[in-house]
Each structure stands twice: as structure tokens, then as C-alpha cells.
Amino acid sequence: WARIFNFIGMGKLWAFKSSGLYCPIHYHYLLFTIFNVSLTGQGVKSMNGLVARISNLSKKYKNKTVLAPIQLDIFKGECVVLCGGNGAGKSTLIKMLVGILQPTTGEFLFHTENKKKFGYMPDQMNFQGELTPVEILQYYGSFVQANKEKINQVLQRVGLWEQRNQKVSSFSKGMGQRLNLAQALLAEVDLYIFDEPTNGLDPFWVIEFKNIIQELKERGKSVLLSSHIMRDVVDIADRVAFIFEGEMKACGALAEIYQTCHCSSLEEVFLSFIQGKRQDRVLASASV
Asked: What counts of helices (H) and strands (E) characterise the chain?
């Protein structure tokens, strides 16, 4: 790659190589991978398996609270799932964690010596159609010291090896999502953050995604992911943080949440919050 131009107003970095092909990416991604920027500075030595701590993180727009203060610890080798419906605040939280949004209060503390911090998979990635998966991963890999062997390994793991030299303009939504996953897996880090990672995946690749999460956990890696498709995350979650209308209503192992909410599935938990809100409205109306 010959040069990198940073157009902050566009929210993207545009980079080009000698062939003249352009590759747009979010400048926040490079901000973290190149300059190691975090909301709280340098990480500290790991203590008792703690990898990262979300400490009273919240977001307000003018007088509207989009996300009430969140407190959450992430430990080595576990998968924590942010679960909830559309618009609950899951993606808002993740965007604050990776630096795309500035939090109103709180901080995101790393308790790891790994200076690369995390691998990040946004909910969607608009790759330049004229590029191939190999070219795209070579580009991203240059920022995390991923060699050719690592790139080939990741391409094989996400099932894009045979399409490695094919232009991504011909890719389906699911193939693009798997390439999005591939770029996040390039870095050897302690924490991976995935925002709605199963969107667009067919049933086979939903299963394979779960297998990839299990492989990361077996290597001692930690995963924080968001999903509104609750059946896709039950099998892989060590703990679930249930976010409803900007508030974390429950957090813990599934068995604990089911017992506390007197439910037998995440769908029932979600419905219980909706019913509780309706009851609150009825009581408020009756008291007027």
C-alpha cells in the first residue's frame, strides 16, 4: 500500500496500492490497531483471569438516555453475549467499547498485556467490490502483523479459500459476513468483539460460527458478542447480559437468569420484560 489518506469527516480511511484499487475501511479500526488507542490508556497486568472491565459506561443524546450505566467484567476463556431486541442498546454499547462513539460516563478498562487489545467485527462491512478476499486480508493483516500463513488459515476457516481470488462484488451477503469475520480473526488478541455476527449467515455457517467461538475459548481467548437472534447464542454463551430498552436487566449464566426470571428460555425472558413494562404502564395509568 502506497499511501493512506484519512478523511475524518467521511468516517473512513481510503487507502490505495500501486494497482490503483481503493479500499475503504472505518478509521476507528485503524485508530485502535495502529496506534493502540483505548478509552482508558494502557492495559494493566491480568489479575485473576480478568481480561476487561466495562465500568459504568452510559450514553445520552441531549436529555435522552440511550444506554443506562453498564457494569460488566469479561474473564479469560469465556463468551459473554449481549442479548436483546432491536434498538435495545447492544450496538451502542459495542460502538463505545471500540471507540466509534464517545461514552457519556464510564470507561472500558483492559486487564491484559496484549497491546493489540481486541479483534473487532462490526455488524456490517462494506468492502470494496473490486478487491479479492486475499487483497483485503493482506491489507488488514498488515496492521496486525498477520503473515501469509495466517491469512490462508483464516480464509480456510471461514470457507472462502476457493473464492480467495474472486472479486467480492460477486459475493452474497453471507459470504461478505464471513469475510468480515475473517478480518477480525487475523489478530492474535485476548478479546474478540463481534456485533451481530450471525446476520446473513445460513444455518450451516451459524453452526460453524459457534464452532469458531468454541475454538477461541479453548485457546483461552475471550469473546463479547451481541445478538437479537436468541436461539443462535444459547449454545455458546457462558454468561448472558440481557439489555432491554437501554438497561441491563439481567446478567449471569443462563440457568441463573432462568431461575431469577422464572423462565425456561431467552424468548420467555424477553417477553417477561415486555409484560413487566406493560404492567408498569397500567399501574401508572391507574394512579393518575
From this structure: 8, 12
Asked whether the whole model's pTM tops 0.85, one would answer no
CA end-to-end span of the chain: 66
DSSP structure class, residue 10:
G
Residue 233 contacts residue 225 (beta carbons within 8 Å): yes
Residue with cell 469479561: 74
The 10s digit of each residue's pLDDT in 27-58 is: 344 433 333 333 333 333 345 699 999 999 99
**What per-residue string of b and e applies to 174-190 under the rule 16 or more CB within 10 Å gives b?**
bbbbbbbbbbbbbbebb
Per DSSP, 101 falls in state S
| Res. 232: pLDDT tops 90 | no
Name, in order, each residue with C-beta under 8 angstroms of 231's C-beta and a sequence gap of 6 or more.
266
